[in-house]
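TA notes, week 10

Several of you asked for a full example with nothing omitted. So below is the full record: structure tokens for the whole chain, then the designed sequence directly under it. When grading your own attempts, check the secondary structure regions first.
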């Protein structure tokens, strides 16, 4: 159940919903497979898969949900080849040139003919609502995928007052400062061995480093030349390791041996119990990490957030 990424959204005003109310809302948009002439569809499915039927898995006030997306795969080269064959046949039989508009129409026709036989690609995206912490956390590798889930959830709920969190100073300033030691690295964080450095000029280059001492001379020389850190590998209190980027995206999230040992104490034969235990351990740890990380990055900018009365 461990998330591999954490794209975070901050609730901009008090938001609370029960598991029962959330379940009722999501039921209206449950996943249904693509029809014969549809290229894609998405909807909510049970987080526990075959081990559960509920669309919401709740524990400790945290609500886990799962968005499933099905896309029909139509290989571009195959479509192109079939369109060219049709164009050649028309030009040979009718002795005329097939124009661009007609080619586009032929392409649509070919795709419609291929759709019923096309293979499907299915993807599941997990997320959980943490109303008491004020966060929505999405296990997505990109901001686009995370926003897609948030938009779908907003549609199902009718309203979802969230935005990516903001900090008081530019993340690149802090990440760079941790490397050149102009900004103090909190005791809870340890530098890893990976980073990405960018030249902020319009046509500036990018340097990606792996397996290096991030406070060594090689990195320091790039920083002295004006490059800025835009991605950095970190470890939090020896329990979580991850890569943090300038958009505050958390990637390649790995949970340490301590949490894994706690999970190993759960009955391995009970899939639902093990799933629930992993979710509980993960949410408790992330509930500690996220506020601490925002503080470490200079403090959260809460100017657009309405606190509870």
């Amino acid at each position: 159940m461990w998330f591999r990424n954490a794209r975070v959204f901050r609730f901009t005003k008090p938001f609370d919903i029960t598991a029962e109310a959330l379940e009722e809302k999501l039921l209206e948009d449950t996943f249904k497979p693509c029809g014969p002439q549809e290229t894609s569809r998405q909807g909510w499915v049970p987080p526990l898969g075959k081990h559960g039927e509920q669309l919401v898995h709740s524990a400790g006030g945290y609500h886990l949900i799962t968005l499933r997306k099905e896309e029909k795969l139509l290989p571009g080269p195959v479509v192109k080849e079939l369109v060219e064959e049709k164009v050649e046949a028309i030009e040979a039989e009718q002795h005329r040139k097939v124009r661009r508009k007609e080619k586009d129409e032929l392409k649509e026709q070919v795709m419609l003919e291929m759709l019923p036989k096309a293979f499907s690609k299915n993807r599941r995206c997990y997320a959980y609502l943490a109303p008491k912490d004020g966060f929505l956390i999405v296990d997505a590798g990109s901001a686009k995928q995370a926003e897609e889930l948030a938009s779908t959830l907003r549609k199902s709920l009718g309203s979802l007052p969230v935005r990516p969190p903001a900090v008081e100073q530019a993340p690149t300033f802090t990440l760079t400062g941790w490397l050149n030691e102009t900004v103090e690295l909190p005791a809870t964080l340890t530098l890893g061995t990976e980073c990405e450095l960018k030249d902020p000029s319009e046509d500036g280059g990018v340097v990606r480093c792996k397996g290096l001492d991030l406070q060594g001379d090689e990195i320091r020389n790039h920083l002295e030349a004006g490059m800025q850190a835009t991605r950095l590998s970190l470890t939090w209190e020896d329990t979580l390791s991850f890569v943090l980027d300038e958009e505050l995206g958390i990637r390649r999230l790995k949970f340490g041996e301590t949490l894994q040992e706690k999970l190993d104490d759960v009955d391995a034969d009970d899939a639902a119990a093990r799933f629930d235990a992993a979710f509980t351990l993960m949410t408790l740890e992330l509930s500690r990490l996220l506020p601490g990380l925002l503080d470490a990055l200079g403090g959260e900018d809460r100017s657009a957030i309405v606190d509870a009365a």
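The chain has a mean pLDDT of 91. Use that as a sanity check on your answer.
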